[in-house]
């Protein structure tokens, strides 16, 4: 054991019992499609907390929606077909709505045949589970607070099945309004958009019919059934947006205009709604006396009312004009003038004799050239002065075309104001909506695109006038954690050069509010080439008096003027505790109200235990409610009761939902059972935390995930999986599946492998060497536990982890086999290549992000070569698989090719897998399956002594490739 290494184990003893998984079999890749699990992200509680619903089922197959009581064991199951469904409860918790789809096999067949798969809507009454269904439903919504109605929009189809829509074909469909109390229903035809207001009294909807017959915006009073046509026009109406209070809404209207390539938009504002009475305002999209010349209202965002209903906010964008058709008339300026010097325009067929005479005397006209017959070069011009590379401009072309300038329209004065512009591209409004802030990056854009070090000038924008006042010059954006207006809009919180500040937006006075606090607000865990990265802030308290700022451990309540500061945590630095996030319990609260109970997720940096801390209303110190070897979600409180929902999981226990009506979360009830597979398959026996010292002298940690059927005293083949810092997720469950990167921890644990995931701490200008300094001591410390078989250790990483894998095998022979997914291999050539997914160069990534280098290679040659796998390639003795796809938009494909060809030239054992057409990770399910299976076959050969697959041991001739792939088809 390395003398520097210190071993620390953190593992529940129950997980280590060898008899816990006796008789269970390992999970095979072929059984993944039948793996049953709960879709945790879609689970929903009812607003009163009495009901809970979730979807579960196999990875590939038909699913079930479970509706269960949160107070007892009552539950109901509904078969919903092969596609998961969103779950919606009515606000009064009396109904639940969800979709039923065709079976999984039918959906896949439809996808292959490019046919749509229609959905059925099912509505269930929670008091007695009486239900009703509607076929071919596109969308639905309950009527918000009144809960009397449900609106159901059906699928819209062309007039003939499979026929394309014509230009004048309507996009509307039938909208059914079903009264959940009386069971009566009303049908509205050709509806394209619809929204209930907050109370549910009003339904705003648009009609989009064939030939635009009857198109318009309509308002229905749901209490009387009376409908008003607020505006009719031969136009399209879209993007209805009610305000929060439900007493006003805005939307867009579009018409075709021959002058422009795309429809021209207007906006409509509706307010002061009283029964059939409402004020309707329209603002033209082509009023160049107000909107900037060449611009019109953007279709890429909706419109919204200000809180005081004086202003409508919307976006404007450039309009592309169509080419004007050339006239068949010939303009005669100097010829054909009469005695009054009037210009004549004549056609040859009706020209007068005198005009013909003058034409004859003129020089012969040049023959007309049809531009369509000309050949033009197909090229791009790259200029060193371009702020963005041409590749970036091309990749981001659609975004640039869709670029929207945030604007405002004052209804009373009919005045247009542009809030943003081409330099300040977006504006964040203050709560009072009379001001906002915007950032101008343009003075620094060129340099930022070179080295990734971004700066911006911060302006305060006046909403009424559009005037912009420079408040802060050249803020360093890389280190910032964002900006936040105070609730009264008088102050703006921001970070600069190691401290948090407040800006008085009225006086422009800046106040350093953390300079006198005996702690640092610089993130000690961030080791990129970024100066003084900020720690987390949770913004303002609801009273506007304080901000909540986290140092690396404790949480501080700091006054807006910086004169007072106190911790809400009790010396958490000594306990290595820290908050990770705050639960958003109250949906109407825009800031943290300390007069209400607040809950925070927490982490112990030393043990990696997670849990929940509670800050009681009006109190000044947090209480730790839960802290254990678990991963725990934030707490969700339902709207209409003090019922709390949250998720807990561990490294070998699938996530489960819990509910508690106790604010201290003591009396909890488990709502889900996500372990149906555990009775059959052997999974991980748990995890251990190892603490060791790197070769740089830093105390670090690694997580060792134990294999299924682990027996103390036995050693196991081990996969070392690397990226950066991974141990914070020590207690996170790994869902068995086909991953985009090939490696699935659960599958390897189930099949008798231990998995080691170490933390890596980086030194600038030494990313590869830092990985060596951290990973090798971690492997040695893991071997010293007796769990890891030192003769059978492999390594794998993808992307940045792939780079480090490719580099580590040039520096050590400790690994018996390696797999590098999409690896960077030559830092010098990679530095100036293109990150094709964005079109930008890699230079910024090298100098301010993962590369952790401080300059270009011309000033840092030794660092670039010292940390490039390609320059140490002769020292590679470890068999290697490279997975690199030909359309990789993150790490250029040539990086993998260069490393492969270099190793092949040296006659080193190497295979490169290329999945044609795939990007940085695998997206096609069949490719995910293939890569996952090949990777395990390879590791099984080297670490378990199984026979080598022929594609590794002998290779596959290109002429035989099709047959090889057919034999391995899924």
TrEMBL record:
<dbReference type="InterPro" id="IPR001375">
    <property type="entry name" value="Peptidase_S9_cat"/>
</dbReference>
<feature type="domain" description="Peptidase S9 prolyl oligopeptidase catalytic">
    <location>
        <begin position="775"/>
        <end position="945"/>
    </location>
</feature>
<dbReference type="InterPro" id="IPR029058">
    <property type="entry name" value="AB_hydrolase_fold"/>
</dbReference>
<keyword id="KW-0378">Hydrolase</keyword>
<dbReference type="Pfam" id="PF00326">
    <property type="entry name" value="Peptidase_S9"/>
</dbReference>
<protein>
    <submittedName>
        <fullName>S9 family peptidase</fullName>
    </submittedName>
</protein>
<dbReference type="InterPro" id="IPR011042">
    <property type="entry name" value="6-blade_b-propeller_TolB-like"/>
</dbReference>
């Amino acid at each position: 054991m390395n003398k520097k290494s210190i071993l620390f184990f953190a593992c529940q003893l129950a997980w280590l019992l060898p008899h816990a998984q006796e008789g269970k079999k390992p999970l095979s890749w072929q059984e993944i499609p039948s793996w049953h699990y709960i879709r945790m992200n879609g689970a929903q509680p009812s607003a009163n907390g009495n009901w809970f619903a979730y979807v579960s089922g196999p990875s590939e197959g038909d699913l079930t929606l479970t509706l269960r009581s949160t107070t007892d064991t009552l539950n109901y199951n509904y078969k919903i077909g092969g596609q998961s469904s969103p779950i919606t409860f009515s606000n009064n918790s009396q109904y639940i709505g969800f979709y039923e789809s065709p079976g999984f096999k039918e959906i896949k067949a439809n996808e292959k045949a490019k046919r749509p798969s229609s959905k059925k809507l099912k509505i269930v009454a929670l008091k007695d589970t009486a239900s009703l269904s509607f076929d071919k439903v596109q969308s639905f919504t309950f009527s918000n607070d009144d809960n009397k109605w449900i609106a159901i929009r059906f699928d819209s189809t062309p007039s003939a099945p499979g026929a394309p829509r014509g230009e004048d074909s309507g996009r509307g469909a039938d909208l059914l309004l079903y009264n959940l109390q009386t069971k009566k229903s009303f049908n509205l035809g050709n509806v394209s958009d619809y929204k209930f207001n907050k109370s549910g009294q009003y339904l705003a909807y648009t009609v989009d019919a064939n030939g635009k017959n009857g198109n318009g915006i309509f308002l229905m009073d749901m209490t009387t059934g009376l409908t008003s046509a607020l505006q009719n026009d031969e136009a399209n109406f879209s993007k209805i947006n009610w305000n929060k209070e439900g007493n006003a809404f805005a939307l867009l209207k579009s018409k075709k205009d021959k002058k422009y390539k795309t429809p021209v938009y207007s906006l409509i504002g509706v307010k002061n709604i009283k029964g059939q009475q409402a004020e309707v305002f329209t603002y033209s999209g082509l009023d160049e006396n107000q909107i900037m010349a060449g611009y019109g209202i953007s279709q890429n965002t909706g419109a919204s009312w200000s809180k005081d209903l004086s202003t409508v906010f919307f976006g404007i964008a450039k309009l592309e004009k169509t080419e004007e058709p050339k006239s068949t008339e010939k303009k005669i300026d100097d010829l054909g003038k009469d005695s009054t010097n009037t210009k004549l325009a004549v056609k040859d067929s009706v020209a007068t004799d005198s005009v013909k005479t003058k034409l004859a005397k003129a020089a012969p006209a040049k023959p007309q050239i049809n531009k369509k017959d000309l050949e033009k070069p197909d090229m791009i011009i790259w200029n060193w002065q371009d702020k963005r590379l041409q590749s970036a401009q091309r990749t981001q072309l659609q975004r640039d075309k869709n670029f929207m300038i945030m604007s405002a329209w004052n209804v009373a004065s009919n005045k247009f104001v542009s809030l943003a512009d081409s330099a300040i591209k977006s504006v964040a409004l203050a709560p009072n909506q009379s001001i906002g802030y915007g950032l101008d990056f343009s003075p620094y854009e060129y340099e930022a695109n070179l080295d990734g070090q971004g700066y911006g000038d911060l302006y305060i924008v006046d909403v009424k006038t559009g005037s912009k006042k420079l408040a802060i010059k050249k803020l360093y954006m890389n280190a910032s954690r964002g900006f936040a207006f105070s609730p009264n809009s008088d102050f703006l919180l921001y970070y600069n050069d190691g401290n948090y500040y407040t800006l008085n937006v009225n006086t422009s006075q800046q106040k350093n509010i953390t300079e006198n606090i005996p702690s640092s607000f610089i993130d000690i865990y961030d080791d990129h080439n970024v100066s003084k990265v900020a720690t987390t802030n949770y913004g303002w308290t609801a009273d506007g008096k304080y901000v909540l700022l986290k140092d690396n451990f404790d949480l501080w309540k700091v006054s807006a003027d910086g004169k007072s500061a106190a911790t809400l945590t009790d010396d958490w630095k000594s306990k290595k505790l820290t908050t990770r996030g705050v639960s958003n319990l109250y949906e109407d609260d825009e800031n943290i109200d300390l007069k209400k109970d607040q809950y925070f997720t927490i982490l112990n940096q030393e043990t990696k235990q997670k849990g929940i801390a509670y800050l009681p209303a009006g109190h000044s110190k947090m209480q730790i409610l839960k802290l254990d070897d678990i991963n725990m979600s934030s707490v969700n409180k339902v709207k209409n009761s003090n019922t709390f929902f949250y998720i807990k999981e561990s490294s070998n226990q699938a996530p489960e939902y819990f509910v508690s009506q106790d604010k201290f979360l003591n009396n909890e009830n488990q709502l889900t059972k996500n372990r149906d597979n555990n009775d059959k398959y052997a999974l991980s026996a748990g995890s251990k935390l190892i603490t060791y010292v790197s070769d740089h002298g830093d105390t670090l940690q690694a997580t060792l995930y134990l294999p299924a059927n682990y027996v103390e005293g036995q050693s196991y083949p081990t996969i070392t999986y690397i990226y950066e810092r991974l141990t914070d997720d020590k207690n996170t469950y790994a869902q068995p599946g086909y991953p985009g990167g090939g490696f699935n921890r659960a599958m390897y644990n189930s099949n008798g492998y231990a998995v080691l995931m170490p933390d890596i701490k980086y030194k600038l200008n030494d990313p590869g060497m830092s990985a060596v300094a951290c990973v090798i001591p971690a492997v040695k410390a893991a071997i010293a536990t007796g769990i890891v078989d030192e003769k059978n250790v492999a390594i794998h990483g993808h992307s940045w982890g792939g780079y480090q894998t490719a580099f580590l095998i040039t520096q050590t022979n400790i690994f018996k086999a390696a797999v590098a997914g999409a690896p960077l291999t030559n830092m010098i050539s990679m530095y100036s290549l293109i990150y094709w997914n964005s079109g930008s160069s890699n230079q910024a990534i090298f100098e301010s992000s993962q590369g952790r280098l401080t300059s270009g290679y011309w000033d840092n040659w030794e660092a670039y070569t010292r940390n490039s796998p390609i320059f140490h390639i002769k020292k590679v003795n470890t068999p290697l698989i490279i997975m690199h796809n030909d359309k990789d938009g993150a790490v250029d494909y040539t990086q993998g090719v260069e490393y492969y060809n270099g190793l092949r030239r040296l006659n080193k054992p190497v295979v490169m897998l290329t999945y044609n057409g795939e990007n940085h990770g695998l997206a096609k399910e069949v490719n995910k399956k293939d890569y996952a299976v090949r990777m395990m076959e390879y590791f099984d050969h080297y670490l378990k002594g199984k026979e080598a697959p022929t594609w590794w041991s002998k290779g596959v001739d290109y002429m035989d490739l099709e047959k090889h792939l057919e034999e391995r088809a899924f």
